Amino acid sequence: xxxxxxxxxxxxxxxxxxxKTIYDPEIPVDIYELGLIYDVFVNEDNDxxxxxxxxxxxxxxxxxxxxxxxxxxxxxxxxxxxxVEITFDPPWTQDLMSEEAKLELGLL
Length: 108
Hints:
Elements: H1 3-19, H2 31-34, E1 37-42, E2 47-52, H3 64-74, E3 81-86, H4 99-104
Parallel strand pairs: 2-3
Antiparallel strand pairs: 1-2
Protein name: DUF59 domain-containing protein
Organism: Lentiprolixibacter aurantiacus
Domain MIP18 family-like: 13-85
């Protein structure tokens, strides 16, 4: 495995750890386990793009949550820049939640 690939994997893992520190204020589960993060892209310049959704288009944190995600990811040493893109395609459903999140919320 090349050093660049290893670095990108390591950065991806760090990004996931940061995402797991961000919580939806209405649900006591982090946004990663909730299934709000659809994809994380890292290019060779360590620019990060995160494709995420919200539990609903009317989510009360629609303005602040993407900013929090962007700022926390940008704060990582290895990250050059970060951009968050919100999508509602596909729309979020409880099926996107991890088993851990479903257990935490009593859905299992």
